[in-house]
Structure formats: C-alpha cells, structure tokens
Write a structure and sequence with these properties.
An eight-stranded antiparallel beta barrel has the order 1-2-3-4-5-6-7-8. Helix content is 10%, strand content 60%. A hairpin with a 4-residue loop joins β7 and β8. It starts with a helix and ends with a strand. By secondary structure, the chain is mainly β.
Length: 124
C-alpha cells in the first residue's frame, strides 16, 4: 500500500458517516418554527432520547397565537447508518439528518398541510 492509498482510505473512512439510535442518546434543546395549515407555529423544549429508539419531550409552543406551556409527549425514532433519522410523534412523522457527530439534528415535518423545521441541539 502506498502513502497515497493510506491517506485516501483514511479520508474515505472519515467521510463515511456511521450512526445508530445511540448516536443521539441524551438531552437536546429543541426549537421549531413553521406553519400548520395556515397557522404560524413556534416551539421550544427539551427532548430526552434513550439511545434505543424512544424519547420523551416537554415543550412550550404557540400555534396561531395560542400558547401551550409544559406540554409532554413521547415518541419513537429510528436512525440509519447514513445518519438520517425518522421521528414519529403523536402519529406525525419527521425526517432529518444528524450532524456534527450527534451534537445537532435537523428535522422537517412530513405532515400534509404543515411546513415545520425543527432543530435539536445537544445539552451539555
């Protein structure tokens, strides 16, 4: 093996993501904005993931200027090796990508009539 081959293998190994459910284990602050049907949405909260595909969430949100505080919910998630993730919460699905080694997750709602972007950031 040449030096060039060794460098190429190292670069390729670093460039290939390898994720699983445990990649996003722990607590994440969450912030979402968007529209549900014609109503504006804003949300902040805390999501706790168990590393095995289950999570608990507590959030405060505003939909069409009506604020709901300390709403709790639970759901499931599934992470693929390429670091894409699918979230199911109250029957609604979100698709996304895990970035920066699991420090952040970018999500988009795949709900008919909704345009919602959600960002999760690891709580240290």
């Amino acid at each position: 093996m040449t030096i060039s081959d060794a460098i190429s293998q190292k670069v390729n190994a670093q460039a290939t993501p390898s994720c699983n459910n445990a990649t996003i284990k722990g607590s994440y602050g969450t912030k979402a904005t968007g529209m549900i049907v014609e109503w504006p949405l804003a949300q902040v909260g805390l999501v706790k993931l168990d590393g095995r595909g289950n999570f608990q969430a507590t959030s405060t949100y505003s939909v069409n200027n009506t604020v709901t505080k300390n709403e709790t919910a639970s759901g499931t998630y599934s992470v693929k090796q390429d670091c894409t993730v699918q979230i199911v919460l109250n029957g609604d699905t979100y698709s996304g990508i895990i970035v920066d080694g699991g420090k952040e997750v970018f999500l988009i709602a795949t709900i008919p009539g909704a345009v919602v972007i959600d960002t999760w950031k690891k709580v240290n």
